[in-house]
Amino acid sequence: MDLTHDTGRSGLGGERRLFAARLITGLIQGVALYALYFAGEHGLWPRTQPATFGALALAAGYAPVVVLAGVGRLSPRTLAIWTAAAALVLALLGWHDVNRRVLESWVQPPFLSFPTMAFGAAALFIAHHLIVPAVRAGRWIAPYADYFDIAWKAGVQLAMSLAFTGAFWLVLHLGAALFKVIGIDALGDLLGQAWFAMPVLCLAFATAVQLTDVRDGLIRGVRTVALMLLSWLAPVMVVLTAGFLAALPFTGLEGLWGTRSATALVLSAAGALIVLINTAYQDGRPDNRPPTALCWTVRAGGVLLVPLVGLAFWGLMLRIGQHGLTPDRIIALACAGVGAVYAAGYLLAAVRRGEWMRPLERTNLAAAVLSVGLILALFSPVLDPARLAVADQVARLERGAVTTGDFDYDFLRFDSGRAGRAALDRLARSDDAEVARLARAARQRDARDYNDPSERRRRADQVRLHPAPGQTVPAELTAQIDSLADVLNLCGGEEGCTVRPIDLDGDGRDEALVAAPFVVLALARDPGGDWRVAGRYGAGCPSARADSLAEALARGVATAPAALPDLAVGGRRLQAQPQIDCDVR
Length: 585
Description:
- The chain is mostly helical.
- It has helices at 15-42, 50-70, 76-99, 114-137, 144-181, 186-191, 194-214, 216-231, 234-251, 254-258, 262-281, 292-323, 327-351, 360-378, 385-398, 409-414, 417-428, 433-444, 453-460, 475-480, 485-490, 549-555, and strands at 463-465, 497-502, 511-515, 519-525, 531-538, 567-569, 572-574.
- The longest helix is centred in the first third of the chain and has 38 residues, at 144-181.
């Protein structure tokens, strides 16, 4: 097999030929993406066949990156085979992603869903850095140090190349703004043209890959510094995780489950812990071993992964037992499965005698292969989450786990693509007259119906009541919550919202505030005694450090005088909208 040297450049006979190959690849990618854009804008083929368009878009967006990363590192023949295989798989994933969904008239190309693009990129990155070390080593499984060196270097290259491309585009826009000041709009107009922007951005990215590649020592130096700094975050993460797990027996799990995003939160913590453990372990060579204190911290982190992943599975099983499978829960279940592989392997590495954390190496490789396999299965017909979720939800209805009135027909209509529509058609022909009626009604809707009892009840259940000490929430408000459309719209997200009674106008009668993370609605009684939305408040200057409004409202609220009074002009009442300066310290 014709392999290149470790420099990654001898296969094309020098840096100039390597640079030319990358520039040509970037140009071809830019032209291909523009051709798809042009077809989408003008309704030409493949715009007329959305599934084909999605296949070509995913392949054109990602497959050239394989060439940029592999040229000079793999022989031309090997690179051609791998690129063709990657392009074919990407095209099949893109085709399936579009074909399984029902595209509404307002959906525009490239039609691809975000999960397919994100997980497709992840699978391509992992697969590429499993294949390249193995090919260059001439064996199925390369030395672990090769996987570490190539993958982490590529990660730094990718980050720097994306940053360079973004900075390049910003510089061009800055130049356009300078020319515009003196009355020359040509550059600004040019930047707004897709035929110019797409090829130029692809060329800029290809150039960045080349520049970072020929500065191999610089990239390794940046990687070394980054790994060193990140590794010292491992003790912080271990202490926080240990404190969180130690507090759970005293606080209970209700607060965690009440977030409705417990699995994602816990899996994110586990993922962060895995990354930080690897920044400390690096390639496992003795000369790269961290200080003893950090070694013991890493061992503790390997043990803590087990309860974290266990909590994620527990939360998932609770939600699935209560509400059945959904596409998101199936993907989360797959992520938890990969997390379980990491947890088992890292636990073994942490408690095993001998070389420090050595079993971690095989665990990383096994988890990488499993991740690629699961992504390909989940985003293909093999384990299509929408199909599996629809089958589970309909089975729950048929066996009586969910009542006819509580079943979410709109999930089949709007959230599960062709599989859901087909299931809804079957239910519309059901022998159960009520099921058939509700399925036919859902089939005729153009948007989710919050008047549907099950959906209205679900959203009303998202409302948490937090009266002040000594207060009670008016019973008529509680009874009317599920009839207030604005409240239901506000409270439908994962976070839900908070209700707190308060006398806003000093008349001795309570109004109510309903707070979501960033908006507060004020509710008041009308003359007939019915509750209605009287106004809304918004946080003028969002802050990443601030609690959500819903969380803050649960702890207390007070009124403050208006900065400016209302005006009466021509028989009309004008209300001031205060000017807020978010830069004031």
